[in-house]
Amino acid sequence: MAGSGTNPDFPPVELDALQRAVWAAIVPYRDRLINIAYSGGTDSTALLFVIASLRSRMGLKLRLLHVNHGWNEKSEAWAVHCNSVSRELGVPFESFLLGSDPSFESHPPVFAGSSKEARARDVRYRWFSEVVDCEDVLLTGHHLDDQAETLLLRLMRGSSVRGLAAMRSEQTLDGLKVVRPFLNVPRGTLVRWVSDKGLRVLDDPSNNDDAFDRNFLRHAILPRLCTRWPETAKILGRAALQFEDTQMLLDEVAAEDFARCRFSDPSSYLFHLGVVSIEGILGLSRARLLNVFRFWARVCTLQSPSERALREFIRQLETAGPGSSPSMKLGSAVFRTYQDGLFLVPCPVRKNASKPAERFWDGSSVKIYGPDIELVPKRTVASGFRAALLSDGVIELRWRRGSTRVTPLGRGPQRHTLRKVLQEIRMPPWERDRIPLIFVNGEFAGMPQAVVDQSYRAGAGEAGLEIHLRDLRESCD
After folding, report:
1. Count: domains in the chain
2. HEC profile for the chain?
3. Both 237 and 381 in a single domain?
4. Is residue 163 part of a domain?
5. Within a domain: residue 353?
6. Are residues 447 and 396 in the same domain?
7. Would you say residue 126 lies in a domain?
8. Which end of the chain is more exposed for a tag (fewer CB within 10 A), N or C?
9. What is the pLDDT of residue 120?
10. How would residue 14 be classed by pLDDT, with cut points 50, 70 and 90?
11. What percent of the chain has pLDDT over 70?
12. How confident is the model at residue 466 (pLDDT cuts 50, 70, 90)?
C-alpha cells in the first residue's frame, strides 16, 4: 500500500500521468486479483509495465491472460514472448489458443473484414469470462484512439444510440468486470511511454491490413480527419460519452413506460419474462414503443430484434383481429399474445422435444422435459387434493384434454368443460399445453395450481396435497 501518511485512494504526486490513470482506475479493486489482457503489443505492454510499477506500492495481485489467435506464423513465438515477460516480472500467466474454440471449427480464420474481428472478440471474452472470477477484474489497454475508431465503426454499421455510446471505462460483460484505465489517453502517449522505457513490443502485421474495417479507419480515415481537426479523437470520445448519457435517459423512459403498461396480475401460472397490456403499449408513440421493446430484450439479456422485424411485429399487433395471435421469436424467447396481454416466454429447454406421453406418478417431485416443468407436492390441511385419495389410487399424468369435464369448488353440482374453466381463469393456451392433468383411477381429479374437482378436494381438517409447478425454463441459460 501507499507509504505512511498517504491516502491510498489518491495517487502519490510523484507518479507520472499513466501511473496516476491506472492508480485511479484500479484502486477500488486493489484487494482483488487484477487480470491483464496481454497481447505483447504497445497498448497492453504499457498497461502491464505501468501496473507492475505500482504492484508493490499498492500490494496488487496480478495475472496475465494471453490469447493466441493462431492466424500468423509468428503467433506461437508471440505467445512464448508474453510468457517470458510474465516470468521476468514474476506474474502468473495463462494462454488460450483461439482456434481451439468449437465455434471456430466450421469457420476457419480466412473470413474477411469485421466478421472475423467480431467472432474473435466474442471468443476472447468468453474465455476471459471463464477464467476470471466474478469477484475479480480484467484490465485492457484500450485507449482514446480505440474509442474514436469504435464510434466510427458503429456509425458506419448503423448502430443504435446504445452502440454509439461505444466503450466505457468500466463495464460488466456477462458477469465479467472490465476496466479500461487508458480510455482517455491518446495512443501516441502510450507509444512514447513504451519507447522511453526501452520496452520491446510485438508488431502484428495484421494491424496493417486494411481489409479489416478498424485498420482501414485507423490508417486511411482518422489521419485525414486529424489533419483538418487535430482533436478528432477527443471530440469523438466526448461524443461517445454524450451518447452514453442519452442512452441512460432512454433507459429511464423505457423503464417508466414498461412499468406503466405492465400487467400486475397477468393470470400466468408458469415463468415468463414479463407481460404488458397490448392496448397500453400500443398507446405509446412509435419512438417510445420501439424503445420499450429494445429495453425489454436487453434487461432479459436477449439480443435486440432487428428494426425490420420489430416494425413488422408492431404492425401485426396493431392490425390483429379476433382469434389472431401474432408472435415474434427473440433468441431464446418468443413474444406471444393472449387476450390483451403481450407475453415474453422462454423457448423450450430442449429443442425439438416430443410431446410428453401419459405416465404414472408416485406423488413425489418429478421433472418432466418437453413441457419443462417440475411437479413439487406440498402437504397441507384443508386445501389442494385430498391426500388419502391420492395415496390409495393409481395416479396418472396426462396432457390430452379432449372433452375433460370438472366440477370446480363453489360452482354447484354442474360439471363444466375444462377448456371453459381455463378460459375463465385466463390461463394462456401455451401454458395449458404444458401443465399435466391429474387422473386418479382413471377419473379426472384436477390440474395443478388451476383447478381441483370438488370430489377430490381436501375438506375442513383433512390432509391435503398441493401440487406446485416449477418452471424449468426459469433456470436455464
Report:
1. 3
2. CCCCCCCCCCCCCCCCHHHHHHHHHHHHHCCCEEEEECCCCHHHHHHHHHHHHHHHHHCCEEEEEEEECCCCCCHHHHHHHHHHHHHHHCCCEEEEEHHHCHHHCCCCCCCCHHHHHHHHHHHHHHHHHHHCCCCCEEECCCCHHHHHHHHHHHHHCCCCHHHHCCCCCEEEECCEEEECCCCCCCHHHHHHHHHHCCCCCCCCHHHHCCCCHHHHHHHHHHHHHHHHCCCHHHHHHHHHHHHHHHHHHHHHHHHHHHHHHECCCCCCCCCCCCEEEHHHHHCCCHHHHHHHHHHHHHHCCCCCCCHHHHHHHHHHHHHCCCCCCCCEEECCEEEEEECCEEEEEECCCCCCCCCCCCEEECCCCEEECCCCEEEEEEEEECCCEEHHHHHHCCEEEECCCCCCEECCCCCCCCCEEHHHHHHHCCCCHHHHCCCCEEEECCEEEEECCCEECHHHECCCCCEEEEEEEEEHHHCCC
3. no
4. yes
5. no
6. yes
7. yes
8. C
9. 79
10. confident
11. 92
12. very high
Q: How far apart are CA 75 and CA 81, in angstroms?
A: 10
pTM beyond 0.90, yes or no: no
Is residue 2 packed enough to be buried (19+ CB in 10 Å), middle (13-18) or exposed (0-12)? Answer: middle
Residue with cell 415463468: 271
| 446 shares a domain with 339 | no
Which amino acid makes up residue 227? T
Domain hosting 208: range is: 17-243
Together in a domain, 270 and 175? no
Average pLDDT over residues 100-115: 46
